[in-house]
Amino acid sequence: MIKISTGLTGFDKTIDMLRLGDNVVWQVDSIKDYKKIVAPYITQAKNEGRHLIYIRFGNHEPVIDELEQVSLYHIDAFLGFESFATEIHNIITAEGLEAFYVFDCLTDLLRFWYSDLMIGNFFKVTCPYLYTLDTIAYFAVIRNTHTFETIARIRETTQLLLDLYNIEGDLYIHPLKVWQRYSPTMFFPHLIQDNGTVCITASAKAAELFSSFDWNNERLDYWDVTINKAKEALNLDEETQQKMKELLISILIGKDSRMFELCNQYFKLKDILKIASREIGTGYIGGKSVGMLLSRRIITSEEEYKAYFKPYMESHDSFYIGSDVFYTYIVQNDWWELRTRQKTEEGYFSLAQELHDKLLEGTFSESIEDEFIHMLEYFGQSPIIVRSSSLLEDNFGNAFAGKYESVFCVNQGTPSKRLQEFEQAIRHVYASTMNVDALNYRINRGLAEKDEQMAILVQRVSGDYYGKYFFPHIAGVGNSSNLYVWDKNMDMDAGMLRLVFGLGTRAVDRVIGDYVRIVALDEPTRLPLMASEDEKKFSQHKADVLNLETNTLTTIDLDDILTNDIAVPKTLFASQDFEEASRLRALGYYDRPVPYTLNFKKLLSQTQFPVIMKKLLQLLSEKYDYPVDIEFTGNFTSENNFKFNLIQCRPLQTKGLGKTVEIPKLHNPNDCFFYSKGNFMGGNVRLSIDYVVFIDVKEYLSCTEKEKYSIARQIGIINQALKNTSSLLIGPGRWGTTTPSLGVPVHFTELSNMSVICEVAYGSEGFMPELSYGSHFFQDLVETGIFYIALFKDQETVNFNPEYILNRENLYPSLCPEANFENVIKVIQTESLQVYSDIIKQEVLCCFNKSKNK
């Protein structure tokens, strides 16, 4: 066994010297004392020709003054825990075996992270790695600054924990932990002298040395210390309050961002303190929480808005699980090394599933679990929803719409059962950070290297009990800019809603066999382009609710709800279908009640709801100075009074209408690839198309389900091969569905390089597009800049002529190594094929540019 000197001969004897692999932590009163103990270690290491490394990150004076024979690394702790820990991990990897380290004082990390918890996490992930490489590393913490829990984690992890005292100019070392070594005098204090050490064994002398120290002083987490200082500032001058407010915003919300500026403008110090009082753990509260809080604050910050909206607005009592809890969960369950490898280029996808599975089975610390219990006691048996709120989510330019999970907790049963289900919901949200869609989204948006800590927003579900079900009357998505205008007189800036009955899950997802109500807020009762007889067909037929008996999120037929009491007249949301009732009686069904069609006619024509939503979206867009996207719920009384709950708000990336495009006139309806009146999204465009990727519906129908999934993967390969080209993807039914019988089940990243996607309706075969405006799918289209078209080929206003391009060579075999579906997939290279659209005229045309084909 190789023994290494500390440079203090007498002390070497006391601890039986250092060993390769030792992490040595010094509790000190000052940096000057730390420097005094580091100096002989450095001198000894230089004399022995050791490879010395100084990790510099603190604001304090340098620990090592003479850097000859020392490799110096400056690390920016301001970038956050993960970046900091990862960079140091990479340095340790590069420096290799038997390197000797000196780290700046860990206490200085509080200036950047404001959390003792994260210092303990950093030590726990770094020291074991140093140990495996047979290094020796010196660390320091300032005594009585950190919580007992943090020091306990350090003591548990390190090989040596030593108190260093400066008493009237004399240095004393008091070993607290010396791993795998022991002597009868090892744990006595030792006076350091030039010619050795003196062990203080006499009780009188030891008592004299230590009796003046306060051993039972309260040690709050630095986070709590900072919050307490902010509370004290409430009674001080405005300048001090402003500084404390900005500090709290930076540690709760983030620094140097547009959201920081908006929060600083609208929040007061007391508002930020209220947010902090409802946080579990420490760290950022994440983008979704910030968006919800900021939008609600904007609405209530000025008297004219407050007076207008307050009578209609539900209160909220949300909680926020800080982002530090996510990291702590990973560290305490010993998965940090796996996460570090997953963050590399080689492990980014290959290790994601392993980490995903582990994230579903970890345990939480006792202190965090106690806070969970306290929160659940507050909510009682009210249903709650556990929502992702990552650092990058719902920010300017990056919506992450639908990439991470949200989990309903119906919250029924015993306290222990409710805690178990709540913790599992958190695990599911954490595990969703490793979803393939989320990983691809981060890579495609250039965010793979950024810290993506997962905070969590816990909200009380809006709604009420109706028999065994719990739900709000209405829910939906609102956009301040309406790109789905279908008449020249419509106002794009009036905004639109994507409205459903029941829980809002059906408003944000493209659901099977169901259609949401699209509401143009400049004329709410106007229906999108469709035949009058299609109103029932293209309406909502099912609702998502919480089932209190089964303790689950459940989908049920609307008839099952509307035949029971919902506390308000059903005609507020639905109209009775007397024609259908008549048809049923003619067939002999005399006992059937008159069925309903969910069209929200009275809601949109006889209540203030659409007016409130329009003003709300306009206000938020004005204050954000950017289009916005919101999620909301609404609940009504028998007098048609209502309250809405604003549960989410984020910037909505949109390109606007664009310049007017002149669409060529067709002399022959067959002289185009396709033409449609309406049913497209993406503004006015004129796009040149280099390639068309076409799925043959009849051949696709003849494939097995397994083959249909294989076809989806082949589309992904083609999508990658056609990157940086202008390509049009066209196929039956819905792109991206999870049900192959309804369309091709590609992931969004498998079509993300396309310029145009087109969904073709084949009613007889069961393929039916859904105009996805306002859904998570729509967010992806907008952010990626993809133009969308739905072709209902049986409509009189649609021409669709596949043969227009399909007589050309199929390039599919040359693009895919294993081209097994030549009869299904056609890839056609085109010259001068153009897509034209005019939003005002509601026309979209794809044909060859005649001037170039003469």
TrEMBL record:
Keyword Kinase: yes
Lineage: Bacteria, Bacillati, Bacillota, Clostridia, Lachnospirales
GO molecular function: ATP binding; kinase activity
Gene3D superfamilies hit by this protein: ATP-grasp fold, A domain (3.30.1490.20)
Pfam hit, one: PPDK_N
The keyword 4Fe-4S is annotated on this UniProt entry: no
Protein keywords: Kinase, Pyruvate, Transferase
Highest taxon listed in the record's lineage: Bacteria
Protein name as annotated: Pyruvate kinase
Residue ranges of every copy of the Pyruvate phosphate dikinase AMP/ATP-binding domain listed in the record: 284-664
